[in-house]
Inverse folding.
């Protein structure tokens, strides 16, 4: 573990191999920052399924005597706490491009997000603080979502963005408001269920009515999309609450 400050999580969902594909390529490159990675859900990966018993991205911190994913979650938490930075790599069937998800808005998590050459940052606080995604339970952790997950161009873009991140000084500790203002920052405010009529034009990141849609196109079975609000973090009370 010496000098291994960064841990990439791949295949939290077993049918999202984009992260693993990229990380294997990065292991062959000499970069400024060393890193390790793990396959979060190897059994689901071997069966090309999203999960076996439970969605691993919803059940952290897990259970010692739970089902397969609950046990994996418990083990991953233990591993993750040995590292300074946790970056959970996901892939989407929706045409989202590459963006960052912050599930717990803290100064350190925002700093980590700003170190990536990724324009869009989505703040997605969990509704239930007792269970949720891995990044919610790590001292410093974010998610990176990439879609389409099987698009070679998206995979190559993700590779380049991770190379850029790993080849820089990642130890900055001060927030730069100018840097924050350059990003497109969104807050998840709800979702559009399929019991509601689908708007005639629904496209990721393109404002419709009073919200920006995300995960349009079959990412989730029972919803058309999630609803986002674009925010100015500098003038938002969320920034004053950062610890």
């Amino acid at each position: 573990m010496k000098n291994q400050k960064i841990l990439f999580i791949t295949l939290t969902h077993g049918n999202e191999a984009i992260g693993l594909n990229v990380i294997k390529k990065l292991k062959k490159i000499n970069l400024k920052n060393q890193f390790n990675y793990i396959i979060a859900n190897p059994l689901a990966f071997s069966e090309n399924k999203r999960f076996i018993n439970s969605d691993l991205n919803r059940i952290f911190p897990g259970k010692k005597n739970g089902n397969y994913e609950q046990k994996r979650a418990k083990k991953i938490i233990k591993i993750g706490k040995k590292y300074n930075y946790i970056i959970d790599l996901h892939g989407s069937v929706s045409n989202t491009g590459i963006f960052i998800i912050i599930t717990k808005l803290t100064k350190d998590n925002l700093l980590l997000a700003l170190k990536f050459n990724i324009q869009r940052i989505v703040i997605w606080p969990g509704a239930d603080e007792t269970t949720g995604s891995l990044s919610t339970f790590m001292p410093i952790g974010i998610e990176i979502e990439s879609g389409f997950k099987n698009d070679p161009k998206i995979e190559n873009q993700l590779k380049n963005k991770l190379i850029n991140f790993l080849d820089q000084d990642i130890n900055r500790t001060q927030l730069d408001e100018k840097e924050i203002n350059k990003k497109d920052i969104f807050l998840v405010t709800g979702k559009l269920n399929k019991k509601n009529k689908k708007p005639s034009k629904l496209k990721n990141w393109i404002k419709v009515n009073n919200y920006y849609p995300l995960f349009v196109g079959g990412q989730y079975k029972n919803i058309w999309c999630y609803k986002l609000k674009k925010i100015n973090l500098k003038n938002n009370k969320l920034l004053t609450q950062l610890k």
